[in-house]
Design goal:
This protein is an alpha+beta fold. The chain has helices at 5-12, 23-30, 109-115, 122-138, 158-186, 192-216, 257-262, 284-299, 303-318, 322-325, 352-358, 377-402, 411-438, 479-484, 506-553, and strands at 34-38, 43-45, 53-65, 71-75, 80-81, 95-108, 150-154, 219-223, 226-233, 237-244, 248-254, 264-271, 274-282, 364-367, 370-374, 440-443, 447-453, 459-465, 469-477, 486-493, 496-504. Helix 5 packs antiparallel against helix 6 and helix 12 runs antiparallel to helix 13.
Length: 556
């Protein structure tokens, strides 16, 4: 297949690894690339095969599989894969298959070795892309939705980990020195040195392990749909900040003096509603540049695919067979390809404790296509403890009175008062339960709703269309929030915020909202695109019919 040089240069400028290059260097790069045609279902390379070059999708679709046939990504026009071949000799760690007839650009490692000096900055981007691919295959991200895959994933710089480890190491050294002084000079006969050693060293070791786990749990991620910053403090705090790529306003970088020494910086992503600060990132300049490339790609209209769709629509209007002309989108050749779609990942079946915490009083359920959430049962228990304690005291007093232990109190008034107190406590408990039950958070197919109703009182309802949501964040803060897995989900809508307070499994709630928001935005956008395509194609078809009628009336 012949592809014009300008079309190759245009596509290469959209590939994040090469997007920083000027037109002259992109033209030079296009000259060393080879066009590869793949049939539907054709394997491009197998797992553990030699790494010989990278590929860029020009037309069609390519699916990447990890071991066990798990889908890593579904790549389309402008996406690249196999980048590791240009900088490493390791065998392939995944399998690539063309899910439909595809046209690819192939850049061999041999050619890259010849033109390396003509492509400044490409090596660093290849290194970041390769590390991201490998890390994304090892890290579980169950919140990714259908069709979403990771472009970039990284952690904080290892120097940040090293600086945090200094304190527990110094603490352990101090314990050793003090224990030695106690044993040799201060209290050689007592067990104090051994007690200090037995308590201090395990504490220092636990502290080091906790810091390592905390460092490994922090991720910065860019998918084909959003920017995500996951920050977890082990056993204490769990949050995920994210924003769709299309809401980004600017990408910047800030570097401290320590960062200049060790080579890390903060990447600052400005969105419509605030800032996502990615702290202490290695290769910060490259990461910031890649984010900008993904951001611009998300906002750009795929003119090539839109032109093909318009051609098909126009063909339907005027009765012209574009398939016969070979002008339609690349389709399969009839090969039956068993490629599982990258479906949204699901959790394992809940155990007894998870069932107890989430389903005993239905903290989440679906009705008529809407997802309904209640506050965690911890809030109900917190509001019920006082009437329950008074109720138990009243029952104990009733038993004591009937057993003769409270003989100094008159029988009839005491029993009557106890029954009244029990009835009041019962009404109090029912009120608290009704108040808890009436606080509802709902996510429908087109809006989010915060409904707060007081029993025998007023009702407050706040709602917002899903397409107006700009960002979604969640927090699990404190011991009880982490232990029982509840927190607050904050939804930014313009200048206001809606909060889902004390909801069970806030990360899953955030995922539900983002998933529904993606579906809504997709349907709204598709409706607008289809309407515009219908309108334009009808205009052109009307013009075509007018021309045909004119030719019939005035044949030449």
């Amino acid at each position: 297949m012949f592809i014009e040089r300008d079309a190759m240069i245009e596509l290469l400028g959209q590939v994040p690894i090469f997007a920083h290059l000027n037109a002259e260097r992109l033209d030079y790069l296009s000259g060393v690339m080879r066009v590869v045609e793949c049939r539907s279902g054709e394997t491009i390379f197998e797992m553990d095969s030699p790494s010989e070059g990278m590929f860029i999708v020009f037309e069609g679709e390519v699916v990447l599989f990890s071991e066990g046939q798990h889908v890593i990504a579904s790549l389309k026009r402008g996406d690249s894969f196999g980048e590791e071949a240009l900088i490493y000799d390791d065998p392939r760690e995944y399998r690539a298959v063309a899910s439909r007839q595809s046209t690819l650009f192939y850049f061999s490692a041999e050619h890259y070795g010849f033109v390396y000096e003509e492509l400044p900055g490409v090596y660093e981007r290849l290194e970041v892309a390769t590390r991201s691919r490998r890390l994304s295959m090892r890290v579980s991200l169950p919140w990714l939705q259908t069709g979403e895959f990771v472009h970039l994933i990284t952690r904080r710089h290892p120097a940040f980990l090293g600086t945090r480890m200094i304190t527990p190491i110094l603490f352990g050294a101090a314990v050793l020195i003090l224990s030695l002084l106690l044993y040799l000079h201060w209290a050689p006969e007592g067990p104090y040195a051994w007690i200090m050693l037995g308590v201090g060293l395990p504490l220092s070791l636990f502290w080091l392990i906790w810091i390592l786990i905390d460092w490994r749990n922090d991720f910065f991620i860019v998918t084909n749909k959003r920017v995500v910053w996951i920050e977890r403090v082990a056993l204490i705090y769990d949050s995920r900040q994210e924003a769709p790529l299309t809401t980004i306003m600017s990408v910047g970088m800030e570097r401290s003096q320590l960062g200049r020494i060790f080579g890390f910086a903060d990447v600052v992503v400005m969105t419509y509603v605030g800032t996502i600060r990615l702290r202490d990132i290695a290769h910060a300049e490259v990461v910031a540049s890649l984010i900008e490339s993904f951001w611009h790609r998300a906002k750009a209209v795929n003119r090539h695919e839109e032109a093909q769709l318009m051609a098909e629509k126009l063909g339907q209007k005027i009765g012209f067979d574009w398939n016969a002309m070979g002008e339609t989108r690349a389709r399969g050749t009839g090969v039956d390809v068993q490629i599982p779609s990258p479906e949204r990942k699901t959790e394992k079946e809940p155990g007894f404790l998870q069932w107890l915490f989430s389903d005993l009083i239905r903290l989440r359920h679906e009705s008529s296509g809407a997802i309904i959430y209640h506050k965690h049962w911890f809030v109900l228990v917190r509001n019920l403890w006082m009437p329950l304690i008074i109720f138990m005291i009243a029952i104990a007093a009733l038993i004591g009175k009937l057993g003769g232990s409270l003989g100094f109190l008159p029988t009839t008034p005491t029993i009557a008062g106890i029954f009244i107190l029990i009835f009041v406590c019962f009404l109090w408990a029912v009120y608290q339960y009704a108040d808890w039950q009436n606080d509802i958070y709902k996510v429908t197919k087109d809006q989010i709703i915060d409904l707060d109703r007081k029993p025998l009182g007023k009702e407050r309802r706040r709602s917002a269309p899903l397409e107006n949501v700009l960002s979604i964040e969640y927090e699990r803060l404190g011991f009880w929030g982490f232990l029982l897995n509840f927190g607050t989900v904050t939804i930014s809508v313009g200048n206001t915020k809606l909060t889902f307070d004390y909801v069970y499994n806030p990360s899953e709630v955030q995922q539900d909202i983002f998933y529904r928001m993606g579906e809504r935005l997709g349907s709204v956008h598709q409706f607008e695109v289809d309407a515009e395509r219908e309108r334009v194609s009808e205009w052109i078809a009307s013009y075509h019919r007018a021309i045909e009628k004119d030719r019939e009336k005035h044949p030449r």
